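Researcher: Predict the fold of Cobalt ABC transporter ATP-binding protein.
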Amino acid sequence: MTAIEATDLRYAYPDETLAVDGVDASIERGERVALLGPNGAGKSTLLELLGSLVDPDGGQVRYFGETTDADTVRSRLSVLTQNPADYLFNPTVREDLAYGPAQLDCDRAEVDRRVERVADRLDLDGLLSKPPFRLSGGEQRRAALASALTVEPDVLLLDEPVSNVDAANRKTILDLLDDLAADGVTLVVSTPDTELVPHVADRVLLLDDAGTIASRGPTRRILTDTDLLRDCDLRPPQVVRLFEGRTADVPLTVDNAAEQLDAAGLDTIE
Ligand SMILES: Nc1ncnc2c1ncn2[C@@H]1O[C@H](COP(=O)(O)OP(=O)(O)OP(=O)(O)O)[C@@H](O)[C@H]1O
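Model: Structure tokens for Cobalt ABC transporter ATP-binding protein follow.
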């Protein structure tokens, strides 16, 4: 079943900047999709349109087959923007995490269960009683993600979820996204970072700086098309640049590359 079906989306800001121009996108349930493009390509705007945070000037977004009903969308879909303040507005982090499920009429015990479980998963246990404005920038981003997760969405749209996040927390977040995908949650991640894409997506919608889709396809096909990426002002992943032309099966990540070198008996270089 389709999770999100967008047709001919168009959005211009009040100053007439055309940020999204005629985008079609169909995202199946359980898929992991990246919105990849350079700065200013329209990724955040498209993510907000796909997540019903803003209404398009043209075109339409439908969810789960047919519905456009706002309550259904709110209960089954979470969007994480780049601004943690959109999610952190209560006196304590615990109340911010509890806000979504409480809005969905979960009872007190269920709300507490969700808050504890997500806080544990994102290493926020020690921060639950703090006011959110006392958290560091990275902690605020984790708390915002946690508040998007306590509604237990079927579809999660994330705008640059690991930008400005340290290595340990990046791993925590990427492992969590793997677990959510394994549980069947549909993931849409916007990023300008080609290095991140193999970790979060099986399919890519590639945007160019005109707010249109330049190409779409499986992650491997898009990330190994180095001319296409450069035409969109993106740098191909470093490991692709290193292995391009040296093997038919170009690895997309350093871990893939290490496995290939081991398999080829090149585990040490004299
Ligand atoms: N509030 C706004 N008013 C006017 N123009 C805007 C506004 N927000 C974004 N834009 C413009 O819309 C275009 C798309 O912006 P958007 O933030 O969607 O791009 P992006 O691909 O997410 O960029 P980045 O990678 O830098 O976050 C850009 O040209 C930007 O300058």
